[in-house]
Amino acid sequence: MSHYFTLHFASEEDAIQAVAGLNLLPLEIVDGATTELPDSIVISQAGGRLRGAARIISGVAIPGEYNPETQEEMKPPIPIPGTFVDIVLNRNILPSQLKPYRVPYGSAGHVWANSTMEEGACPPLLPRLT
Known about the structure:
5-stranded antiparallel sheet; mainly beta; 28% strand; single chain; 9 strands
């Protein structure tokens, strides 16, 4: 059974460092050897107890409002600062170091196949990032 989580960090660097601290990211991402992040990253911890995949998502915005007849923008989209990480794990245990960053699953506007957003995920709220 799969378990889904969305995390929200102040920056992409913060997201990578938080997840990397748990050995959940490939070394080339952690040490900066790669300049482009893949859309999906397979993750695992030593010993194979925790397995899954992660997506790093930036450029998230609360959708704008448009006139249905003219498609004229009535209210512009509102960019959400920071970087989201969507994680699917084989266990329903989010490591304690990541719990402070948890937001409702699906808050970045993405969900894994065969999953549904948690209540309160859409539209996402503007966060209080520290």
